[in-house]
Amino acid sequence: MKKITMQQIADHLGVSKFVVSKALSGKGGVNEQTRERVIQAASRLGYFNQKNGYVKNVIPSGTTLPAPAGKQSVLVLMPNIRFQNKESLYWGRLLEGISRELEVQQLGMIIVSEPRGDNFINILNPDGILGMIGVGQIATSFLLEVHRIGLPMVLVDHEDPLIPSDTVFANNLDGMARLTTHLIGLGHRELHFLGNSAFSRSFRDRWIGYRSALEEYGLTPQSSDDPMLQLEGIDTGAYGDEMHGWLERRRKTGALPTALVCANDSIAIHACTVLSEIGVNVPGDLVVSGFDNIEDAARNTPAITTIHVPKEDLGQRAVRKLVDRLAHPDAPQEKIMISVETVYRDSTAEPQQTGR
To answer: Which Pfam family, giving just one, matches this sequence (predicted)?
Structure first.
């Protein structure tokens, strides 16, 4: 394969090689828009896929993991953890899996929840950092910093089209397709998806799984401009007022669906609360399902039917993949899918009014 150079990227964009070099090195002097253009062009042309497209790995090829005497560490970057609540630890459970497996491997852990500028870059430089595990949605600019210095990384519940890496996912698409098929099998024909397919790769896959199940049974999913597909503030619950208004309007006009298929348990719990407030019974009048199987889903009244995501296993598998990557730096990159299973609870039942 012919080597892609910075000059070729510069010629492709009509800028100087100096600008390309600055953008790819992360140095100042290039505005954000130009930097993004350079990154995207470099990715399209295959620059990042080259062995010499960035500084070589700090771990030489064939090197085994170091003895614990030096207690080398793994950087764990998880910006989403700051949105945790103490009783619904989705990311926290995942972090437990990472921590447990790192202990088995006799490695330390440095957690970064809010990467910012120089502090983040300084953390990446110490010789004691073996690699990075990124959890959830992470900005391309930060992943590029990791990639540029050659630090091996594994991403959990996220992938970036511009930056090649090993990834670990729950099988979101199949899980949601199975759950939706279950609801259709109960007799539901008026289903509605609540979430935001642009929020994360997992949410997008869940929407695709839902849509594919409907289409398989000849049912038409809602249009892509539906407001319940564009909920804002997924992490913070800021979508609450919008959801309340939508459900209330539907109730008043007699246009409620028979099933709400929610992109995660938090949305499902929120929906149950709103439905109770406006006098709609779950599951008598309308059924609700979630995804993830956080603790609050089981505690909710009614308990939420959901998809169990083995959160600790995702974390453990990411560590094992990073260890494997360190031992085999030139092996093909992998996308690992962890199986999920449906948990049937009280929030779903057969529709009370068919053909509504």
So the answer is: LacI
Condensed to tens digits (0 to 9), the pLDDT of residues 158-186 reads 998 888 899 999 999 999 999 999 999 99
* Mean pLDDT score across all residues of the chain: 84
Place of tokens 């799984």: 209
What's the pLDDT at 204? 94
306-308/341-343 β-pairing: antiparallel
- Which one, of 136, 120, 119, lies nearest residue 81 by Cα? 136
Strand order in the sheet with 287-289: 191-194, 259-262, 287-289
- 190-207: pLDDT as tens digits: 999 999 988 888 999 999
Higher pLDDT, 109 or 61: 109
Number of residues that this document lists for the chain: 356
pLDDT given for residue 57 in this prediction: 29
In the chain, the largest separation of any two C-alpha atoms, in whole Å, equals 69
Per cent of the chain over pLDDT 70 is: 81
Q: Does domain 68-169+311-338 have CATH number 3.40.50.2300?
A: yes
pTM: 0.77
Task: Indicate the helix (H) or strand (E) that contains 194.
Answer: strand 191-194
**In angstroms, rounded to a whole number, what is the distance separating the alpha carbons of residues 287 and 349?**
7
- Read off the amino acid at residue 274: V
Percent helix, strand and coil across the chain, each to the nearest 5 = 45, 15, 40
CATH number for the 172-309 domain, one of 3.40.50.1370, 3.90.1150.10, 3.40.50.2300, 3.30.750.24?
Answer: 3.40.50.2300
**Ordered DSSP codes for 77-111:** E-GGGGG--TT--HHHHHHHHHHHHHHHTT-EEEE
Closest CA to 160 of 11, 28, 333, 324: 333
Break the chain into its structural domains and give their ranges: 6-45, 68-169+311-338, 172-309
pLDDT higher than 70, residue 303:
yes
